[in-house]
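pasting for the record
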Amino acid sequence: SPASLYAATKKSCELMSETYARLYGLPQTGLRFFTVYGPWGRPDMAYWSFSQNILNDEPITLFGDGVLSRDFTYIDDVAPAIARIVDQPPAIADGRPHEIYNLGNSTPTSVLELVEAIENALGKKAQRVMVPPQPGDVTVTFADISKAAAAFGYDPKTKIGEGIPRFTEWFKAEGHKYAR
């Protein structure tokens, strides 16, 4: 039972992919990404807009008082896993031409911890606006990476306190050019 429209769209796409794989014998692998962040990331993600707003002395909005936790996954941990997974499509012979792997950090981090990491990396405090959670917000999400670890040796290493400074260094040098 998906908690949000976002979750429902993810589940429905996975079901369509699995059905297509079974009907037409085309092996498919689905990847569930858990809040991937880093240089060249998506400008609509919280870490990006928080960094931009903090640097521009603009407030940031924290839903659920910032206690919501997510599985922030650094891009350098995900990219090599994708390369390994692409080289090994699921076997049709085993009757399962469709596999799904979670690619996350397997460590929930609160949004407050994310903001603190950004503040520390930028050397500047955020102006925080606390608001109630949005409809469909889940308190904690994180990846069970055991299947990807067993199949491909997936083993993310980068913690938020290491990845965010890498991102903010890039953002100050390059990323701000792409900010909205």
